[in-house]
Write a structure and sequence with these properties.
Blueprint: E1 3-7, H1 12-23, E2 29-32, H2 36-45, E3 53-56, E4 59-62, H3 64-71, H4 85-113, H5 122-143, H6 156-171, H7 179-190, H8 192-201
Parallel strand pairs: 1-2
Antiparallel strand pairs: 1-3, 3-4
This protein binds glutathione.
Glutathione binds at residues 11-13, 49-52, 63-64.
Amino acid sequence: MSLTLYAHPFAAYCWKALIALYENSIPFTYRLVEDAAGWAELESLWPIKKFPLLRDGDATIVESSIIVEYLMRYPGTARMMPVNDDAALDVRFLDRFFDNYVMTPMQKLVSDRMRTQTDRDAVGVADARRMLDIAYGWLEARLTPRTWASGNAFSLADCSAAPALFYADWVHPIGDRFPGVLAYRGRVLARPSVARVVDEARPFRSFFPGGAPDRD
Ligand SMILES: N[C@@H](CCC(=O)N[C@@H](CS)C(=O)NCC(=O)O)C(=O)O
């Protein structure tokens, strides 16, 4: 096994792969994608130029959810994907939920902050905020009786939830309207693998568009 992860500590989707690696103490080389050479190398492997990207010897694996599933062939103590088919489907469903309905609108709000005032997309931002409210509401009912997002164990669903809710709360606060979601976010952030990615991203907070809040 010779794993290299192309990633950046501040990038939300990279957290998903990093959390799974840390959960299982899987050894890997961290290829920081930051400068032009890093981006060129990433592009040579994946013209879409998105990360995380995993290299396992000569094999290239892209898409954060696929990377997490791929890593399960190097099992440590924590399976990110249940063996049972129905349980695995639920984990994949929650993974899709967090990516599509929390991460995507969160990224819309973040990227809009990077635009000039005249290029801002008021309609898109309002849609994203509406989607986040609906997603928080759905999650409130879903998460309140649970410790983790799916089943009884920490899984891919929680790998996805961590960055999605971490950054979503910065740009569209969960507040006291959704106490179950807020409590779940706190539980996830306290998980050592997640606390580690949060800490690794700390030095980059000054780059957060519009400024990062003074918490977490
Ligand atoms: N669906 C992809 C999304 C990856 C993605 O959007 N990554 C962001 C970082 S969080 C990225 O590569 N941004 C660089 C860019 O868009 O230039 C996955 O799950 O891996």
